[in-house]
């Protein structure tokens, strides 16, 4: 029997998974686009339907030199940073950090602010 061709190749990024407040955050990876760094996630809800708000200004990352950078913009499902999250549905989300120096080659610590709480991811290499 021949193997079936792959139809869904996994994202080759970080793959770090965190759970907080009955939300599951899967960090797919961070990438540099010119002077910006964009981190991509998949978010799902393990609780009742409710709003999720990703707070760009409360989201930060620490670069390899120990300097902290604040988030600039965020979205969930291509909408503003606040949406109602239905249980069992995966939502694409991004947080973008703008106007950063070229010397930043990785993220030591990403602190994602959501619903006035936070979740952290460590040691994130950039994906292409």
Brief summary of the model shown:
The chain has 128 residues and is mainly beta. The chain is 0% helix and 59% strand.
Task: Explain what you see.
- The chain is mainly β.
- Helices cover 0% and strands 59% of the residues.
- It contains no helices and ten strands.
- The strands form two sheets. The protein has a five-stranded antiparallel beta sheet, with no helix packed on it. Strands 4, 5, 7, 9 and 10 form a five-stranded antiparallel beta sheet that branches.
- A hairpin with a 5-residue loop joins strand 4 and strand 5.
- The N terminus is likely disordered.
The whole-number mean of residue pLDDT values reads 87
Distance between the termini: 35 Å
Tell me the series of helices and strands, N- to C-terminal: EEEEEEEEEE
Return the structural class: mainly beta
Query: How much helix, percentage-wise, in residues?
Result: under 10%
Residue share in β-strands: over 45%
Strand neighbour order, sheet with most strands: 1-2-3-8-6
Radius of gyration: 15 Å
Shape: elongated
- Please give the count of helices: 0
Poorly predicted runs: 1-13
Number-wise, the strands total: 10
Biggest sheet, in brief?
A: 5 strands, antiparallel
């Amino acid at each position: 029997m021949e193997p079936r061709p792959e139809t869904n190749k996994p994202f080759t990024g970080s793959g770090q998974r965190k759970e907080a407040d009955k939300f599951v955050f899967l960090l797919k990876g961070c990438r540099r686009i010119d002077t910006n760094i964009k981190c991509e996630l998949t978010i799902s809800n393990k609780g009742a339907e409710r709003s999720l708000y990703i707070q760009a200004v409360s989201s930060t990352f620490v670069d390899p030199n120990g300097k902290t950078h604040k988030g600039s913009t965020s979205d969930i499902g291509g909408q503003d940073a606040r949406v109602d999250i239905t249980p069992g549905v995966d939502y694409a989300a991004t947080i973008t950090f703008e106007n950063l120096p070229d010397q930043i080659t990785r993220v030591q610590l990403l602190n994602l602010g959501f619903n006035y709480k936070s979740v952290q991811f460590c040691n994130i290499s950039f994906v292409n």
